[in-house]
Amino acid sequence: MNATTRFAGIELGGTKAIAVIAEGNRIIDRRVIPTVAPGQTLPALRAQLDRWLAEAPFAALGIASFGPIQLDPAHPDFGHILATPKPGWTGATVAATLTDGLACPWRIDTDVNGAALAEYHWGAGGQCTSLCYVTIGTGLGGGVLINGRAVHGAMHPEIGHLRLRRTIGDTFSGSCSFHGDCIEGLVCGSALRDRFGMDPAYAADTHPVWRHVAADIAELCGTILLTTAAQRILFGGSVILSRPFLLPWVREMVVDRLGTYLPFLYTGSAEQILQLAGLGTEAGPLGAIALAQAALNAAGR
Question: Of the CATH numbers 3.30.420.40, 3.40.50.1580, 3.40.630.180, 3.40.228.10, which one belongs to the domain with range 124-278?
Fold first, then answer.
């Protein structure tokens, strides 16, 4: 592998999908496709891969998909979307549609695991043996890396569906169709629309609901720190990026709740532990490229 080796990547998100082609980890071309019905979105992505293949071969493909998704290669539903609140996508054959007939190695993982891997190699996760990437946007997802490897087990981490301690006085019942007031049902884009009773983009920074949102995110961070011993939690997604005051509030609340128990957590260290993703909006597309490079390395090429 060298700096000019070509890799293809697909970041399949809940709102849009991004197909990229890269030389090394430098993206040289991309196409953005709305995530509509799987019968439209997936063939359009595959057609783009075929167009790039016709121009020049790529060494490997990485697929970073929203979840939940079956990642066990031995399972008959490997590469299929599992039960999801996104209409029409339960059972979608993501991997097969995108890879059937390809001669190159490929790897599929969650979009957040991919983004965590990209941050580990090229972003704000360098030198970390334990890392969590959290995106808050259309949904909420979290990818966990230990020693540079994504955590897999019975499936993959489903951080967005943790049900956490609520702030006293916050009566919002949540918007998740599966769990109501899980963390995704409290702070993702559609949840915020319900909480504010309007498009959250028009909610003033001084609106008191933002303190509840920060408290919910702080509770999530505390849970991640206590359960994974993450050295760093990196944030991406439109919700956290559009309201820069949220992260300082989250840090303050996490230190207040856990700083007397976790010896590594205090006001000074919280700025290092809880950060915005170093790659910004490129964490997702580069996550797909990181997965492609991992696929090539695993194939010994």
Answer: 3.30.420.40
